[in-house]
Amino acid sequence: QGALKTGFYSSSCPNAESIVRSTVEAHFNKDPTLAAALLRLHFHDCFVQGCDGSVLIDAASAERKALPNLGLRGFQVIDDAKWQLEATCPGVVSCADILALAARDAVDLSGGHSWGVPTGRRDGRISSSSDASTLPSPLDSVAIQRQKFAAKGLNDHDLVTLVGAHTIGQTDCLFFRYRLYNFTATGNADPSLNQAFLAQLRSVCPKDGDGSKRVDLDKDSPLNFDVNFFKNVRDGNGILESDQRLWGDDSTRRIVNNYAGNIIGLLGF
Ligand code: HEM
Ligand SMILES: [Ca+2]
Ligand SMILES: [Ca+2]
């Protein structure tokens, strides 16, 4: 892997970034939930073997077959962009770069910030489901989340900022329903859950109901890339246990609070 730089394709494939953009836009206009899918796809690629497109490889025991990756979506958007790029500049643009550009465009289209994406990644050929164990689980404590991110050179600020991606997208009841009923065998719900929200979640995800029912990770603006996710974590309205735990640790709480726009957080208390 050589050094990455923004505009890596400016002479070899000048339209590379605009082709990715228009492809993402066309899919997004039909289904805006694909923005979340693309952002998550990029994260799951980068967290395993680096940003090398390994998550895209479709083979018997590839990463895609690992449990944390079974819910990944949006592959068709990347395939579509790659197909168009091959017609324009054959063999030039890597799938790993397409993924990184598509994630940027997805956030931008959802009303978030935009950024320049350094490009020049090369696609890897190795993809093994067992390597996906480095990915975080929704049951992880802050200590474990911190450890998994630190293994990639990422600190608490990076962790909280990146998890802020949950301002868009959804999850299955299956991944958090245990918090609503017999949490840690107490017979009660997770005490960190906001009571009013708990009642709502119980009606959407009944104890013995359909575990694949989808629920917004940010109850207030699941299609908008904004700070509501952090306000929800502050208020006990985080869906995933891993998200809500960020409020229970002094260091990550301060960062969540800052993003939520609290004065007390901004002053650094
Ligand atoms: C401690 C870290 C994290 C954990 C435990 C975690 C876990 C999860 C889980 C369990 C889901 C729901 C999957 C499903 O129901 O199919 C999810 C969805 C999602 N995650 Fe994360 N995640 C983490 C960090 C991140 C990061 C760093 C990003 C991106 C920068 C991200 C982006 C997303 C997005 C956008 C969705 C919604 C996907 C969709 O609607 O299709 N997550 N995450
Ligand atoms: Ca990878
Ligand atoms: Ca939001």
TrEMBL record:
UniProt keyword annotation of Ion transport present: no
Binding-site residues, substrate: 136
Domain of life: Eukaryota
Protein name, UniProt field: Peroxidase
Active site, renumbered: 44
Native source organism of the sequence: Sesamum alatum
Family statement: Belongs to the peroxidase family. Ascorbate peroxidase subfamily.
Ligand binding (Ca(2+) 1): 45, 48, 50, 52, 54, 63
Annotated site, Transition state stabilizer, chain positions: 40
Record-annotated disulphide pairs: 13-89, 46-51, 173-205
Positions annotated to bind heme b: 166
Pfam families, per database record: peroxidase
Function: Removal of H(2)O(2), oxidation of toxic reductants, biosynthesis and degradation of lignin, suberization, auxin catabolism, response to environmental stresses such as wounding, pathogen attack and oxidative stress.
GO annotation, biological process: defense response to fungus; hydrogen peroxide catabolic process; response to oxidative stress
Ligand binding (Ca(2+) 2): 167, 218, 226
Chain ranges of the Plant heme peroxidase family profile domain: 3-269
